Amino acid sequence: MKQRIVILISGRGSNMEAIVQHCAEEGWPAEVVAVVANKPTAGGLAWAAARGLATAVVDHKAFQDRAAFDAELARVIDSFEPTLVVLAGFMRILGADFVRRYEGRMLNIHPSLLPAFPGLHTHQRALEAGCKAVGATVHFVTPELDHGPIVMQSVVPVMAGDTEDTLSARVLRTEHVIYPLAVRWFVKGQLRVEGGLVVQADGASQVLM
Ligand code: GRF
């Protein structure tokens, strides 16, 4: 049976695009069954709809509290019967109950070398800290923000004169490589979590330098 992927976005959706394209081009045993956004203005929605994908919006502004938003989001996600939920630039903090519902089958990408710099403004904070290398992390989602078993990381150098923009562009190019790869491993059943750590069944390198 094919794995059913629901992708959650808040903005332009370039990671979503990369996953949809790799899934189709590489013939994964999976299909992206829906793209769900928490903002009606999320740019990625138009791309997904033009590609014939089901789209939905659960506008967080329409809900009084996080629990009500989370409940409606879960209802919409579950209506697509996913086996995997992929957070791709989804900028809402999710409650512990929501996260537990998808435990072991929800991935996120974060533009830092976790556990360094969880949260916002990662590239600016890395520049201010004088980091010589930065990167991105794909991880299973746990109730703690930007935390959870690490599936794959990319590492890129910080160059003289880098700004938040140049650094985020360099990291984003690697996100488009590591996120599809990590999702491919998941849908092919090549990932397992042992003692809080991810094991890749084929022993493939889980770092992109
Ligand atoms: C990415 O840098 C991702 O790591 C972060 O938000 C950005 C989303 O970009 N969480 P996009 O919407 O996938 O283009």
Question: Could you name the key traits of this structure?
Answer:
single chain; 209 residues; alpha/beta; Rossmann fold; 2 domains; eight-stranded mixed β-sheet; two-stranded antiparallel ribbon; 10 strands; binds 5-O-phosphono-beta-D-ribofuranosylamine
How are the secondary structure elements laid out?
Elements: E1 3-9, H1 14-25, E2 30-37, H2 44-50, E3 55-57, H3 66-79, E4 84-87, H4 96-101, E5 106-110, H5 122-128, E6 133-140, E7 150-157, H6 164-187, E8 191-194, E9 197-200, E10 207-208
Parallel strand pairs: 1-2, 1-4, 2-3, 4-5, 7-10
Antiparallel strand pairs: 5-6, 6-7, 8-9
Helix pairs in contact: 1-6
The structure holds 5-O-phosphono-beta-D-ribofuranosylamine (GRF).
Residues 9, 11-15, 88-89, 109-111, 136, 172, 175 line the site of 5-O-phosphono-beta-D-ribofuranosylamine.
In short:
The protein has 209 residues and is an alpha/beta fold. The chain is built from six helices and ten strands, in the order E-H-E-H-E-H-E-H-E-H-E-E-H-E-E-E.
Describe the overall structure.
- This protein has 209 residues and is of the alpha/beta class.
- Helix 1 (14-25) runs parallel beside helix 6.
- It has 2 domains: 1-102, Formyl transferase, N-terminal domain (Rossmann fold, 3-Layer(aba) Sandwich), CATH 3.40.50; 108-209, 3-Layer(aba) Sandwich (Rossmann fold).
- It has helices at residues 14-25, 44-50, 66-79, 96-101, 122-128, 164-187; strands at residues 3-9, 30-37, 55-57, 84-87, 106-110, 133-140, 150-157, 191-194, 197-200, 207-208.
- Helices cover 33% and strands 25% of the residues.
- It starts with a strand and ends with a strand.
- Bound molecules: 5-O-phosphono-beta-D-ribofuranosylamine (GRF).
